[in-house]
Amino acid sequence: WMIYGAKVVMSGHVVEIYEYERDIKTGKDNKDGSKSVGRAGKGANEEDREKNREIVLSRAKREVRRLINSNVDAWGEKPKFFTLTFAENVTDIKWANNEFKKFRQRLSRHIWGCPNNLKYVAVIEFQKRGAVHYHVVAFNMPYVPHADLERMWGHGFVHIRAIDDCDNVGAYVTKYMTKDCDDERLREQKCYFSSRGLAKPVEEIIDKEDLDTLRVVLSPNKTFEKEFESEYVGKVSYHQYNLKRKYT
Question: Residue 44 has what pLDDT?
Answer without folding.
Answer: 64
